[in-house]
Design goal:
The structure holds two protein chains of two kinds. By secondary structure, chain A is an all-alpha fold. Chain A has a single domain, classed as Non-ribosomal Peptide Synthetase Peptidyl Carrier Protein, Chain A (Orthogonal Bundle). Chain A contains five helices and no strands. The longest helix of chain A has 14 residues. Chain A is globular and about 35 Å long. Chain B folds into four domains: about 220 residues, 4-Layer Sandwich (Glutamine Phosphoribosylpyrophosphate, subunit 1, domain 1); about 210 residues, Rossmann fold (3-Layer(aba) Sandwich); about 90 residues, no CATH class; about 70 residues, no CATH class. In chain B, the strands form three sheets. In chain B, strands 10-8-9-1-3-2-18 form a seven-stranded mixed beta sheet. In chain B, strands 4-5-6-7-11-12 form a six-stranded antiparallel beta sheet, with helices on one face. Chain B has a five-stranded parallel beta sheet with strand order 15-14-13-16-17, sandwiched between helices. In chain B, helix 10 packs parallel to helix 20. Helices cover about 40% and strands about 15% of the residues of chain B. By secondary structure, chain B is α/β, with parallel strands linked by helices. Classes of the chains: A mainly alpha, B alpha/beta. The interface between A and B is medium-sized, with 23 and 32 residues.
């Protein structure tokens, strides 16, 4: 089965959820903070999405910009989480 | 309390009584007791009356005894008794006991500067037949609305925009720059309104039309420049404040019909109710809003305050369904996009007041703005404190404590909080520091605008231009208070949540905290007396000791909020679905239909929605309702048969 790359899934979520479906030229490396993407509910919507979609558990000490501040960073963070816990599979799309 | 309108021909034409009747027809809700039209050559004045003072003798438009002055007046002059006595001593003769006639005589005595002597809430127009001059004025804080426009051959004014849009030749298009401002500040910056061709007279301003020219000038300004010495003990200043409030409340009970009070369960309305009870003596009727959801509901405090003060209390319980049901009517009355549903429960509340037989209510508006009550002031203080030591781990925790009800903020990492709350070094230098988080968050709603509608982006520059010269020299706390009091207060709190939803049911609000003596006193208070460390409304709480229940005096301020987005999309098939449909959004061209659909999908999935999402949904919906009710279906002002007009058709 063909799976959508993680980065595309993250992008789709960010664009749909924070940018009302308007891509606004957001690059994979663009900082969410710099681009003003994140609002008052903040990264927590993103965290809920990652936990629900990919079955990972985001710990409080992992709630840092190094992990969550761009599509690229989120993708890298997710990949490392999934590699560390191979039993957890992508749940659904 | 009433509705006013008028026209002045700028060419040789005569005023059209039929046009004035149509204008009045659109705002009969403001004055269901009587209507009147006066025309004299080029000028026409119209009036819809809600009889409160001198019920028998106060008909309008009113003429000074056999003289050249005519007036149409909406509002109340609370010090009219004292002014009347003074004018009688100077030889003026009065034909009525009304405050309306007092304005006429005072104008005759002092001319345009007469407004400086008035203590009240007003919008009026005086026609000086000798000088062929039309003089308009609006109260200092903007309690009462006054709009105007100019067509090819006429100057037109009215209490509400719909009366102007009922006139031929008045363009009813929305103003894209106004949307840009509303989707930043929640309000337009006066004289701008949501409509491209309609202006509002700013609070504290007068307008003159003479020789075909329009002149607008300020007669009063909100000034936070400290006076030396601004010192005094909390004890002494608290006592002084209480005396001022006592008098402000006393004169606001002047009425020939019974006066009730809104009782929210918070400090301000409880203080006002306590002072009204003290002055009126007998049992007072109080009214409030309650909600099924605990996060919005304050009814326990309302009951406690009512029991403590011995009032006869009634409340209206608001459900999501009711909020959704009345929302289109709320927008019809508000005449501008709103980002919150909070005006809807107040619309339901004024209906309860009216059904209970009351026309007048006291309310606590103005205290949060002028005595340091809003969380935004506290937030700004904490942000500044954090900004001085950005690496601090514990300073941001104060922000989390400030918003216990906002789940998103609780787990937020410091870097995100720092950005969301704008505590970088460059933010600290920004003159709008206090409001950056709110305005920047609100500005995100512009992502919903269509490419065509997104062209205008001058909101901050326009605000900067409107600031008083002395703004930069004021304390940051005072700057924040100014931004709230000069803009959000008249543009939203006193209009969409105030005059417009109260007058929808012919109810007049009166605000002791907005007595200009109280406002001027508060503007001179040092910030430390308004917010001692993080204690909001410190001096007011001090002054209220013994007057109200301790639990209310000491309680943490609960911001007034109502359920937003979920009110509309909970059940499929409602009007909101149609209003937000891609076809309609595309037709109107203001928003991007794909973006609106994405927003609607987010609500439909049941995922957690943010403050921004909720503002977006309510903002888009209210704008589309505005398009529907004002642009596609232009107000007509059709007069029903039973409407009786008292004609003062004096043609000379």
């Amino acid at each position: 089965m063909q799976t959508t790359p993680i980065s595309q899934q993250v992008r789709a979520f960010v664009v749909e959820n924070y940018l009302f479906g308007r891509d606004e030229g957001l690059g994979d490396e663009d900082s969410f903070l710099e681009a003003g993407v994140i609002d008052s509910t903040g990264v927590l919507e993103l965290v809920a999405f990652l936990e629900e979609r990919f079955g990972v558990k985001v710990a409080n000490d992992e709630l840092i910009t190094d992990n969550l501040d761009s599509i690229q960073k989120v993708t890298a963070y997710l990949q490392s989480k999934l590699e560390a816990a191979p039993v957890m599979q992508e749940r659904s799309r | 309390m009433c509705g006013i309108c008028g026209s002045l021909s700028l060419d040789a034409g005569a005023a059209d009584p039929g046009l004035l009747r149509r204008m009045i027809g659109t705002i009969r809700h403001r004055g269901p007791d009587a209507t009147g039209v006066y025309t004299d050559g080029a000028v026409g004045l119209g009036h819809a009356r809600l009889s409160i003072i001198d019920v028998a003798g106060g008909s309008q438009p009113m003429q000074i005894a056999d003289g050249p002055l005519w007036i149409t007046f909406n509002g109340e002059i609370f010090n009219y008794i004292e002014l009347r006595e003074e004018l009688i001593r100077k030889g003026h003769r009065f034909a009525t006991r009304s405050d309306t006639e007092v304005i006429l005589h005072l104008y005759q005595e002092e001319g345009e500067r007469c407004v400086e002597r008035l203590n009240g809430q007003w919008a009026f127009a005086i026609w000086d037949a000798n000088r062929r001059k039309l003089f308009l004025s609006r109260d200092r804080l903007g309690v009462r609305p006054l709009f105007y426009t100019r067509t090819a051959d006429r100057f037109l004014f009215a209490s509400e925009i719909k009366a102007l849009l009922a006139c031929p030749g008045v363009d009813c298009a929305l103003d894209l720059e106004a949307l840009d401002q509303i989707f930043t500040f929640w309000v337009t910056l006066p004289p701008r309104t949501a409509f491209r061709n309609i202006q509002q007279l700013p609070p504290g301003h007068s307008l003159v039309v003479e020789d075909g020219r329009i002149r607008v000038s300020a007669y009063w300004r909100l000034d936070f420049t400290p006076e030396e010495p601004a010192e005094g003990s909390a004890e002494r200043l608290g006592a002084e404040l209480l005396e001022l409030l006592r008098d402000a409340t006393r004169i606001r009970l002047r009425s020939d019909v019974p006066v009730g009070a809104y009782l929210s369960g918070g400090l301000d309305s409880t203080v006002v109710t306590a002072l009204a009870r003290e002055a009126a003596g007998d049992r007072l009727r109080t009214f409030s809003v309650s909600f099924d959801e605990a996060e919005f509901d304050e009814s326990a405090y309302q009951r406690e305050a009512s029991a403590f003060l011995g009032t006869q209390h009634s409340d209206v319980r608001c459900s999501h369904e009711e909020i959704a049901e009345v929302f289109p009517d709320v927008v019809w009355h508000a005449e501008q996009p709103v980002l919150r549903t909070a005006p809807a429960p107040l619309f339901l509340l004024s209906r309860l007041v009216r059904e209970s037989g009351f026309k007048v209510v006291l309310s606590g508006e103005g205290a949060d703005e002028m005595f340091g009550g809003y969380d935004i002031f506290k937030e700004a203080k904490i942000r500044r404190f954090w900004g001085r030591s950005p690496e601090s781990a514990w300073r941001p925790l104060l922000l989390k404590r400030l918003y216990p009800y906002m789940n998103g903020i609780q787990r937020q990492p410091a870097a995100y909080l720092q950005r969301f709350f704008h505590v970088r070094a460059e933010d600290l230098e920004n003159p709008f520091f206090s409001h950056l988080p709110r305005w920047e968050l609100t500005s995100k709603l512009k992502m919903l605008l269509s490419d065509e509608a997104r062209a205008e982006t001058g909101a901050y520059a326009a605000l900067r231009e409107s600031l008083p010269d002395s703004f930069g020299a004021w304390a940051p706390f005072h700057q924040a208070e100014y931004l709230e009091t000069a803009h959000l207060l008249p543009g939203y709190i006193l209009s969409s949540q105030g005059d417009r939803v109260a007058m929808a049911h012919s109810v007049e609000g009166r605000y002791p905290f907005l007595d200009h003596r109280v406002v001027e006193f508060a503007a001179k208070l040092p910030p430390r007396l308004k917010m001692k460390v993080l204690d909001q409304k410190h001096l007011l709480k001090h002054a209220a000791r013994g007057l109200i229940p301790e639990s209310i005096r000491r309680r943490h301020k609960q911001p007034y909020r109502a359920p937003d987005g979920q009110s509309f999309l909970g059940t499929p098939g409602g009007y909101a679905e149609e209003m937000l449909s891609p076809g309609r959004i595309r037709r109107d061209g203001i928003f991007d239909s794909k973006a609106v659909s994405a927003l609607v999908r987010k609500f439909r999935t049941g995922r957690e929605t943010s403050t921004k999402d909720n503002m977006a949904l309510v903002g888009v919906l209210s704008t589309e309702i505005l398009m529907d009710r004002f642009v596609h279906r232009r107000p007509s002002g059709q007069i029903s048969e039973e409407d009786q007009f008292a004609a003062h058709g004096m043609r000379r």
